């Protein structure tokens, strides 16, 4: 459903509806999202040395993120079911200079999602990054309940009528 102001999730009488994208052409679309998990350096060490009882934290978080991207329309109200052509997650520890000796470590999770469809994949990328971060928390919470999942954000988007979005570097 569209209006003069553009696409909307509401009818003229205020009822929610899924936006009708059937008239839009299918185009290649890509989105990259990021989430960060701050943790104690001892938690970092347990992850890196695969000493977490629940298993390989990074591999399981990657799988969870991919699975979540595929289920986004079931999690986010009024989100379209989008055929995904590619989903990849990269998980890497950031060099904060404070790890070791009781410092902190930061795991950076980036999710990239691609499709050729009538609507974008920003929500799929954001969902993938978020669920991967929550999986890390779940797997490591016995070691570090003070972990912080933070800064879930869209880094990049291309395709469709609105064109390219690139997040500012210092945001």
Q: Could you walk me through the main structural features you see in this protein, from its secondary elements to its overall organization?
A:
The protein has 171 residues and is α+β, with helices and mostly antiparallel strands. It has one domain: Molybdopterin cofactor biosynthesis C (MoaC) domain (Alpha-Beta Plaits, 2-Layer Sandwich). It has 4 helices and 7 strands, in the order E-E-E-H-H-H-E-E-H-E-E. It has a 5-stranded antiparallel β-sheet with strand order 4-5-3-6-7. It has a two-stranded antiparallel sheet with strand order 1-2. The longest helix has 19 residues, at 122-140. InterPro entries: MoaC (IPR023045), MoaC_bact/euk (IPR047594), MoaC_sf (IPR036522), MoCo_biosynth_MoaA/MoaC (IPR050105), Mopterin_CF_biosynth-C_dom (IPR002820). Substrate binds at residues 78-80, 123-124. It comes from Alicyclobacillus acidoterrestris (strain ATCC 49025 / DSM 3922 / CIP 106132 / NCIMB 13137 / GD3B). It is an enzyme of class 4 (lyase). Keywords: Lyase, Molybdenum cofactor biosynthesis.
Features:
about 170 residues, Alpha-Beta Plaits, two-stranded antiparallel sheet, disordered N terminus, alpha+beta
Main-sheet strand order equals 4-5-3-6-7
Per CATH, which architecture? 2-Layer Sandwich
Cα distance spanning the termini: 33 Å
Number of individual domains: 1
Helix-strand string: EEEHHHEEHEE
Family: Belongs to the MoaC family.
Protein name: Cyclic pyranopterin monophosphate synthase
InterPro entries: MoaC, MoaC_bact/euk, MoaC_sf, MoCo_biosynth_MoaA/MoaC, Mopterin_CF_biosynth-C_dom
GO molecular function: cyclic pyranopterin monophosphate synthase activity
